[in-house]
Design a protein that fits this description.
Elements: E1 5-8, E2 24-29, E3 38-42, E4 58-63, H1 64-68, E5 75-80, E6 95-99, E7 109-114, E8 117-126, E9 129-133, E10 149-160
Parallel strand pairs: 1-10
Antiparallel strand pairs: 2-5, 3-4, 5-6, 6-10, 7-8, 7-10, 8-9
């Protein structure tokens, strides 16, 4: 039987500055981002079929920081590099928000540190088995042996994607 050293991190800890971030290129504390930006929203849902006049339905603004971030001081933004989570809708170049205040549970998508390397995967914790599973059949789950170290760095709470135009 293998012993897995699972440490769910509650305090903010950063890897040594010389540590190379493998799948996630950078982390940016959301608290350091600019003042909230609001955009006007429409009170009517957009049909994906036939056009609908919408000029009479403009409502209050939407603060994207307020909408996407629950715990401002413990939420960080990462840039995803790679394709292991594409079937979860997380693509190369996407920005994900990871909230360190959310307790990780089975099936959460998490930012993890495995043997001092960052990764983004789906957490599997059932019947004494702990794995990090990709959402792409081209990749294998990460299973743990005696001397592997798994740190759950945060739970992915939001995704931001800019369309190429």
């Amino acid at each position: 039987m293998h012993t897995v050293y699972l440490r769910i991190m509650n305090a903010i800890e950063f890897p040594h500055p010389s540590t190379e971030l493998t799948l996630l290129q950078e982390r940016v504390p959301v608290a350091s981002l600019p003042i909230p930006w609001k955009t006007r929203t429409f009170g009517q849902r957009i049909p994906a079929g036939f056009p609908s006049p919408a000029a009479d339905y403009i409502e209050k603004g939407l603060d994207l920081n307020e909408y996407l971030i629950v715990h401002k001081s413990s939420t960080f933004m990462f840039t995803v590099a790679g394709h292991s989570m594409k079937n979860a809708g997380i693509l190369d170049g996407d920005q994900v928000l990871a909230d360190r205040a959310i307790e990780p549970r089975h099936r959460h998508i998490v930012i993890a540190v495995v043997n001092q390397e960052f990764t983004i995967k789906r957490l599997y914790m059932q019947r004494g088995i702990i794995e990090l599973r990709p959402e792409n059949p081209d990749y294998q789950p990460i299973r743990f042996s005696d001397f592997d170290e798994l740190q759950i760095w945060g739970v992915v709470s939001s995704l931001v994607r800019r369309f190429r135009i």
